[in-house]
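ok trying again, last paste got cut off:
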Amino acid sequence: MTSATWQSSDGWAWDELATWWLSRYKPSTQRTYATYLPRWRTWCLERGIDPLAARRADVELWLRSVADSGLSRASVAAHYDAVASIYRLAYEEELVAVNPCARITRPKIHRELQRREVLTVLEYAAFLTTARALGPTHHAIAVLGGMMGLRATEMATLRVESFGTVRGYATLIVIGKGDKPARVPVPIPALGAVQAAIDGRSAGPLLRTLTGARMDRRSVHRYVAATARAAGISRPIGPHALRRTVGTVGLNQGIPLRDVQRLLRHSRPETTLGSYDITGEALERHASHQVAGFLAGWVG
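nice, full thing came through this time. structure:
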């Protein structure tokens, strides 16, 4: 089979289905998923398989090839999520007779073995000090990510008009995952940096590059990486490391889980605990130390 596009019996082609499916997501998500689908499509093309007639065995064999390519468990699971989602849509719209992913178990992710960067308190202090010296945009990103827990895309989409005051509290309207808006307070230690980034303007993007253009997600990543290098932090640091710092410090300081979950805008407390309680301090506070000490006291 040499055709790059397959046609189903009712006129729907795989490429048309993929385009429709991707259009349901925001641009940043589209870019991520757009890297996964071509791999499945190419795998099918090489074997003469019509993706719209793929079987469960085909998807499982493809997932095995993805895993054998050396990608992490999280990446394999993300590949599965994309393909499973598009087939779920196709089945709901009666474009395929059977959903080949319906009985496939999602690849498990062992979160405790994932490499999830987080800054220690001293590292964040150095990061914040360096950001302040580098300029208003660096400083604003440092507090938006490291004090308020905003994601890179959330920071990039902030506008001056997002800033306001409610009952005496400075706030920002943040557009989170799923395009869900949320009003988040700006803590007093972060307020000066946010106001400096606004710089007296009444409209426009809150964060701007050196040329004055609106920042995007990648720009935020570059600014965070540059600040980390200037602060003497040698390992790679991205915006999500700042967000993890917020959650981890909050939990370590004894802030109730419910409040940390709300700060990070997680839908489930398991996400907050599973992904954000990861520093050495969590190991130091592990209950096994107290239990072992008690039991050891009974040994002569």
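cool. The longest helix spans residues 73-92. The chain is about 55% helix and 5% strand.
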